[in-house]
Structures are given as C-alpha cells and as structure tokens.
Amino acid sequence: xxxxxxxxxxxxxxxxxxxxxxxxxxxxxxxxxxxxxxxxxxxxxxxxxxxxxxxxxxxxxxxxxxxxx
Length: 69
Fold this sequence. Notes:
By secondary structure, the protein is of the alpha+beta class. It is 48% helix and 20% strand. It contains 2 helices and 4 strands. 13% of the residues are buried.
C-alpha cells in the first residue's frame, strides 16, 4: 500500500507543478486521488468503493491530496 500512496503522491505533485498556457492565460491544475488495494474479497467492487470513499474524503479535506481507503 505504501508504494501505491507514494506513487499517487508523485502523480499529484507532478500535476500541481504543471502550468498550462493557452492564449496568454496560464492556469494551474490540482488533483485529488483515492487509493485502495484489493483485499481478500478477490473482486474489485470493494476496492473501487474504498478508493471512491478515499477520493471523496480528499475533496472534503481541501482537495489536492491523496487519501487511503
């Protein structure tokens, strides 16, 4: 799980550092990510639900962050 969180954080930082310029207007983009692993259930439904809940939590906590579900 730690590797997944570290990779998600790496992605989040790269997106945050990227500036997009279009017609002399520069915008910044941020990203919230929810991370979960497949547990004993062996079907992705539970994992997807946990990742979705983690993403929602990240948005509640102020966006531009990684949360684990």
